[in-house]
Write a structure and sequence with these properties.
globular, 2 domains, Rossmann fold
């Protein structure tokens, strides 16, 4: 048994503060820099539902393929969310910059799921190559290394660096690097991005952690992935 396994990152291999999404991050910043603010993630979440590249994954964004350009876009969106809940423009921009710095700090808030290291280690011993393919920030590679996963994966691909968001077919094509599609699997927690996107690109896929009624291959954890690989 051997081939290529493409892993999503956020929500699949690691997570911040017990859930995915930026709204929790923005509240964390307020907890530190504006104690008693009275806001929660539910108040901020509606203002983060558009404007990021993954909200329009069919549109490539090569103009954002530098850390400076990507974070200029992202900080603007985060600042707009702060403004929407009552902060002035200057204060909102300052809070957005703080959110940026906090998000890329692997020492704060990030945690690797307990099953990741044993499962990826076992699969590597059985001949599988691991690559991370994620709709994420430019510093994803540094996050992976900081969380101790760097030695387990062959490469890390972030949409912020390639300009393609899953489920765009080019996101998948960009990481195959000579590997045959028939022995390549995508594993992730997002049905649209990780499963339907991969299958449309000619790859097999397993949905993990978050069930979806249309998923034909699903596991509540990573331990359940290997049986799917064995039957193909």
């Amino acid at each position: 048994m051997s081939g290529l396994l493409l892993w999503d990152f956020d929500g699949t291999l690691a997570i911040r503060r017990g859930e995915t999404g930026w709204s929790v991050l923005l509240v964390e910043v307020l907890d530190t820099h504006d104690p008693g603010h009275g806001l929660d993630a539910d108040a901020i979440r509606p203002h983060l539902r558009d404007g990021f590249p993954w909200h329009t994954p069919h549109v490539p964004h090569p103009h954002l393929c530098s850390a400076v350009a990507w974070w200029e876009m992202a900080e603007h969106r985060l600042a707009c969310a702060y403004e929407a809940v009552g902060y002035g423009a200057r204060r909102a921009s300052d809070l957005a910059r703080r959110a940026h710095r906090l998000y890329i700090d692997h020492r704060v808030g990030w945690a690797v799921y307990d099953d990741v290291v044993p499962v990826l280690t076992r699969l590597a011993e059985r001949g599988w190559t691991h690559r991370i393919l994620s709709n994420h920030v430019p510093e994803l590679g540094a996050l992976v290394d900081g969380l101790g996963l760097g030695d387990l994966v062959d490469s890390v691909s972030s949409s912020a660096e390639t300009g393609y968001e899953k489920p765009h077919p080019q996101a998948f094509a960009s990481v195959l690097d000579g590997h045959g599609r028939e022995r390549t699997w995508m594993i992730g927690d997002n049905f649209s991005a990780d499963v339907t996107g991969a299958e449309a690109a000619g790859l097999s896929a397993v949905l993990v952690r978050r069930e979806h009624k249309e998923a034909t291959r699903f596991s509540v954890d990573l331990w359940g992935v290997e049986p799917f690989l064995e039957v193909v």
